[in-house]
Amino acid sequence: MSKVDIVIPVYNAYDFTLNCIESVLKYTDLNTHTLLLINDKSPDEKISPMLRRYKEENQDKNIVLLENEENLGFVATCNKGMRYSNYDVILLNSDTEVTKNWVEKLQRGAYSNEYIATVTPLTNNGTNCSVPNFGEDNELPSSMTLEEYAQLIERISANKYPELTTGNGFCMYIKRTVIDEVGMFDEVTFGKGYGEENDFCYRALDHGFIHVLCDDTFVYHKGTQSFTKENLSNTKAELTEKQMEKLRQKHPTYTQKTDEFMANNPLRDIQENVRINTALYNKKRILYLIHDWGDKVVASGTSLHLKDIIDKNNVENIASFVLAPEKFDHSRFRLFLYTDDFAKEIASFRVDLHLYGPIIYTNQDYVKMLESIFDAFVFDVLHVHHFIFQTFDVIGFAKKNNIYSIITLHDLYMICPSVNMAYEGLFCEYNPRKNCGKCLKDRFGINSDMIGTWQRVCYHLLKRFDKIIVPSEDTKKHYKKVYNDLEMEVVEHGVKVIPVTHKEEKTKTTFDIAFVGAMNEHKGSNVLKQLIKENEDPNLKIHLFGITDNPELEKDQNNYKNHGLYKEGELPQLLVDNQIDLVCIFSLCPETYSYTLTETYMTKVPVLAFEIGAVGDRIKKDKVGWVITVNLPATQILEEIGKIREDKEGYESIKKNYELYQFKTTEEMQEYYMNLYDSIFDKDKKNDISDLFEIYEYRYQNHIYELKDEMKELNGKYQEQLATVAIIRDSTSWKVTKPLRKLVEISRRGRGNNA
Fold first, then answer.
1. Model pLDDT, residue 617
2. Domain match, 260 and 353 both
C-alpha cells in the first residue's frame, strides 16, 4: 500500500481536534503514512501545546507539525499541506473521527479506476455523502458505537463506488497526479472556505476525472465546529450562500448538475441499506409468510393473530419480516420489515404463480424472489401462517440454511385447497353427495380428482417443519384424520379483552338475535336468509353485524336489520348497545378458532351454534350457550330459539357461567411465542461453532477472511475444524450486499419513482 499524507488543518475546537487525532492514531498506520497537523494560528492557547504533545509522545510515528505564523484561512492552509506533501493526500477536518481501515479502504477505492480523482467516505453529516438521511445532519444510532456502525456499513456495502458530481471536504482522498494536473484549491476566490472542494472537483471534471463515494467506509463528522470560524463578520449561512454564488458563476453547468444530484438522490439504495441494517442490528430475525397483509388494514383473523405477535416482537429485540401477496393483486408480493423503530415495506416483486396451472407447489420466479430475500438477510426462524397464494418452496430454503421452521395451520388448506372443505355450502364430511372431482372442477377448473396427490404433497411438506401449531383441538382432530402421525401443538389465540359499557336497558318486548362477522354461504348466509323468511314472530328481531355477499341480506326487512360493516374492536359494544339477547353462529364448515365468538364472550351474551368445529367445542366446554345439529332446517332452528327464550331460568344460568370464564389474553399468547422463539435462539446459540471462535471479514481486494490471533490458541480438534471453514455466520450476524440493492431497486420500481 503506497504512502498517503493525512492533512488536518486545525483552528480552535480543542475537544473535537483531540478526538480526531486520537482516532487517527488508533486506526492509521503512521509508520507507512504521515499525519500532517497544521495549526492556523488558533487563538485558543491550548491548541498548540496539545499538538506538540502528540508529536513528542509519538516520535516512533510519522507526525509532522506545522505552525502558521499568521492566520491563513482554511483554503490556504489546505494548500500548504498539499504543497508540503509529495504523495496522495487525505484532507481531513479536525471535527471528524475516523474508523478502522479507513485509509486502506479509501485508497482501494481511489485506485479501483485510474480516472478517479477524489474519494469521499460515507458520513453522518456530509450533504451528498450522508446516511441514512440524505443531505441531513444525522445522529449516530443509539444502539451501537461509532466503530460498530462503521463495521456494519463495511459489512453491508456493495462496494460499487458510485460516482459523485463533487467530493466532500470533510474527508477527501486526492490523488497526487490530479493535484499536479489540476492544481491546488483556489484560495483567491474561496479563501474563507466553503465551496473550495467543489471548485477543485469541477476543475477535475474538466480534465476528464471522476469523483466517487467510498460506500464501505464511514467517518464521523461533527460539522461546523472548527475551521472557517475566522470569518466572524458573517454567519455560516451568509458565507455559504456567498461562496455558492461564486461557484454558480464559475461553474454554471456543474452546479446545476449537483443541484439535480441532490434533488434526485441516486444514492437512496445505499441510504436504505444502512437504514434497514441499522434497524436490524443485534436483533433476531423471523420471516413470516401469510396470505393477507397490508400497511393499515388487517382484515382476516390470521392477520390479526400475526399482528399481535409482531407487536410483541417489536419490544423483544426481534426483527419481523412479513412476505405476503398484495390483497387485490396476487401476482405482486410485498416484503415488510418491523422492528421497535422501523415499520415499512422494503421490497416488492412481480411473480405470476398461476401462469400455467391453478394448483402450484413450486414456481421458478417465486424461487428467484426467495433467493433474493434469503441472500439479503440471514433469518433465525421461518414461521408460515398460510401458504395460500404462495408456493411450498420456502421450506427448502429453511432447511438449506438451517433455519428453524414453524407452521401454524389456521384452517384446513393443507387438507384441501378449497380451504373450508365446503361442498354445496356444507362441510363435505357431512355431505353424502360429496364429489371431490366435481368440486375441484367447479372451484379451480381442474379436470382431475387430485386430492390424493395434494394430501401426499402436503404431508411431506408438513413433515419437514420443525413444529406444527394449530389453534384448537378440533383443528388438530381434522388433521389427525388425514395425517395421523404428525405431531401438533394446540395453541389457542389470545385476544385483547374489550371493555363494554352496559347502559340501563330499555324495556322491550322483542327477543333480539344477532349474526356476526362475514356472512357468506359457508358461514351461514343461506341459514340467515331462511330464518328471516320463516320467522313469523313479530317479537323475534334478527340483526346482522358484518358484511355479506348475499344481496337479499343487504337491505333491511320486517324484523331484520343489517347494521353493516364494523371496525375492529367495535362488535362487543354494538351487541350491548342493541340489546342483543342471543348470538347465532351457524357456520356450515368447522371454524378453527373464531374471533367473533370470543368477542361475543366479552358481552356475556349467550350463543347458539351448530355443533361443529372449534365454535361448537368451545361453547360446550365453556357452557355459555347451546349447540344444535349441523344444517338443521330453519323452522327447527326457530323452535330451538323459542325454547331458549321461554326457558328464562336456563338462560340466566348460561349467562352466569360467563363469570367463571377466563379469557386467554393477547399477553399470554405473546408470552408463549416469545418463550418459543427464545428457546430456538438459545438452542442456535449453544450449537453455533462461533461460540468457540470468531471470524472477521475484511473487504480487501481478494476478500480475505482473517482470523483473530486468539484462534491460534485453540486446541487441535478446533484447528482442524477451522481449516474447513470459509466463513461462518452466527445467529447474530448478517451479510447484505448486492441482493439487498436488487430488493430496493425492485421496491422502488414497484412504488414509482418517488419511492
1. 94
2. no
Domain with 247 in it: what CATH number? 3.90.550.10
Q: Which residue has the higher pLDDT, 725 or 268?
A: 268
Let me know: does 672 contact 491? Beta carbons within 8 Å: yes
Indicate the DSSP class of residue 428: G
pLDDT score of 327? 83
Question: Could you give the CA distance from residue 158 to residue 171 in angstroms, rounded to a whole number?
Answer: 21
Residue 667 lies in a domain: no
pLDDT 10s digits, 403-442: 999 999 999 999 999 988 888 878 888 878 888 888 888 8
- Same domain for 609 and 722: no
Helix, coil or strand: residue 336:
strand
User: Do 344 and 296 sit in the same domain of this protein?
Assistant: yes
- The alpha carbon of residue 502 and the mean position of all alpha carbons in its chain are separated, in whole angstroms, by 41
Number of domain units in the chain: 4
Domain presence at residue 501: no
Backbone phi and psi for residue 584, each to the nearest 5 degrees, phi listed first: -110, 125
Integer distance in angstroms from the first to the last C-alpha of the chain?
41
CA distance 7 to 35: 6
**Cell triple for residue 501?**
359499557
Same domain (yes/no): 68, 99:
yes
| 407 neighbors 462 (Cβ within 8 angstroms) | yes
Beta strand ranges found along 175-242 (DSSP E): 210-218, 220-221
* Rounded Cα gap, residues 739 and 735, in angstroms: 10
How many CA atoms does the CB half-sphere of 148 hold within 13 Å? 11
Q: Are residues 254 and 271 in the same domain?
A: yes
Q: Are 35 and 89 in contact (CB under 8 A)?
A: no
Beta pairing partners, 548: 519
Its domain, for residue 219, covers 4-276
- The amino acid at residue 249 is Q
pLDDT at 16 over 90: yes
Arithmetic mean of pLDDT, 562-576: 93
**Alpha carbon separation from 635 to 212, 535, 611, 614 (Å, rounded):** 80, 8, 17, 25
Asked if the structure places residue 152 within a domain, the reply is: yes
DSSP strand pairing (88-92 vs 163-164): unpaired
Q: Are residues 578 and 430 in the same domain?
A: no
